[in-house]
Write a structure and sequence with these properties.
Elements lengths: L4 H15 L8 E2 L6 H7 L6 E4 L16 H7 L3 E4 L2 H7 L3 H13 L3 E6 L3 H5 L3 H12 L5 H4 L3 E4 L13 H19 L1 H6 L2 E3 L8 H5 L6 E2 L8 H9 L3
Parallel strand pairs: 1-2, 2-3, 3-4, 4-5, 5-6, 6-7
Length: 240
Amino acid sequence: MYKAPAEAVKFVKELRETLGEIKEAEVVVCPPFVALGSVARELDGSIIGLGAQNMFYEDEGAYTGEVSPPMLKEVGCSYVILGHSERRQYFGESDQLINRKIQAALKAGLTPIVCVGEILEERKKGITNQIIEKQLGGSLADFSPSELSRIIVAYEPVWAIGTGLTAEAKDAQQVNGLIRSFLAQNAGPEIARQILILYGGSVKPDNIAGLMAQPDVDGALVGGASLQVSAFSAIVRNSY
């Protein structure tokens, strides 16, 4: 919840100038709802994609305060983040709710970026794998292989978000590899290899290269470091 429309527009304008028409990396920005229209206009003709941070699963109705998939499409979004740890933590979002949102996103032609991750207590207990598999199993239940091929998955260890702690590259690879194995079992090895799996959790310019060197880390879901053009653009450039 940063950057009102004017500040968000200033940010993406500077980001476009800094990155240029970069071809080596796919870049997507996900500002708050109120800034989406303004940012979409600023990004018109750019290779930078636009996504939302959340959405509801109905197209319309008596759901005061919610935003629907068709609304996001009309304003210019191609992506939507679903199941972010803060949505789970502060708003009690369950895997079943996230599943309904993914269905709605796919129906509307949006690419869902589906987040999974464990809290510090779960990591200390050594149940990271069980938590990730449970979240994947619930969030991605009953999707066909072709539907799964249209989804991006992001591993965000909750204990590493905004704390300065970062999973070691090998730890990120271990969980991302687990996610790839889950996808292979449910969509087949070929589709699983094509699905993008991101890492998110205190990603910075100085650790992105090590993370991206891992075979199952295809990109990053950047939090705090994405608020500064210099840091975010450095992450993009250090990722390839």
